[in-house]
Amino acid sequence: MPRKHAWADWPDDRLLKLRLKDLKLTIDGTWIEHCLDDLQAELDERDLRIRPHAWLSDEWFSPDTTPGIAVPFYLAHPRLMQLERKMIIDVEGGTRRDCMRILRHEAGHVVQNAFGLHRRRRWQQVFGSSSTRYPKFYRPNPASKNYVQHLRLWYAQSHPDEDFAETFAVWLTPRSDWRKRYADWPALRKLEYVDELMDEIAGTRSQLPRGAAVHPLSQIGTTLDEHYRRKIALYALNTPRTYDRELQRIFSAEPRHRNAPTAASFIRRHRSYFRQTVARWTGEYQLTLDSVLDDMIDRCREMKLRAPGSERQLLADFTVLLTAKTVHSLYSPSRRQWFAL
Fold this sequence. Notes:
The protein has 341 residues and is an all-alpha fold. It folds into 2 domains: 6-219, no CATH class; 236-331, no CATH class. 48% of the residues lie in helices and 3% in strands. The protein has helices at residues 12-15, 31-45, 78-88, 96-114, 121-127, 160-172, 178-181, 187-201, 224-235, 244-250, 263-282, 286-302, 311-331, and strands at residues 53-57, 68-72. Helix 11 packs across helix 13 (311-331).
């Protein structure tokens, strides 16, 4: 049970003025601590002699200077998870299942750096060069079977280090049955290599000493308002208006439909369904979809579109449209790369 904080009862507008370092939070005594214990048990089960330390920061990451994992601050208190959900819609790592998925991924980075795996020639042949510059943009191929699929948006395709971390996470997950799941995929070669590599380093101790926490919460002077303004700017992409014709196929501006509900009100009424369904199908973050939905609602108003006919058919047609536009955006060169790399 997290300890009580005075700010837990503050309204959002007051809470947003607080600096992150003034939250005075720790991982001790929170549910995250139990997740970290479970992660350690999984590493111990594989005889990987590494004990990642963890601290709170403003996002998920694992630095290459210390065998540790930074956990986003909002997971340490239910009031902050509530604020995160209101501001971002998604709470990344907000369930035990999702938290463990991300922790296994970050543990992959820890293991890579702790044992210097990226310096091995075979590692470079399988995953590529770790020194490759992290891109500002990457264009994933959702159909590719050269990479495992673990975190959303085909994250393994962004960089060789992420490819390894994602492969490691799949390998580490209990009962993942990765040999069967990836039986016909070229990605199986990567999993088999990780299996061989982990067997090789099992029982040996890391040579990377435990260093100081990087960018800890206690040193971040940014206010919650400033933090979320930056975060929202990364999620809410400026989406080009390329869907007028598709909206006109689904909805209608004909005078004979003037008594039907407006298309804008139809989308608003079902936006939670559209957002959650398309996020589940495509892996896109809900806040990004929310921005697209806002733009579509504006276009429907401007074109004075109505929503006549079967609501069931309209739901199906609009969901397909939003899905198609989302998948298309994943291939676009203008797609902004904002993931925590």
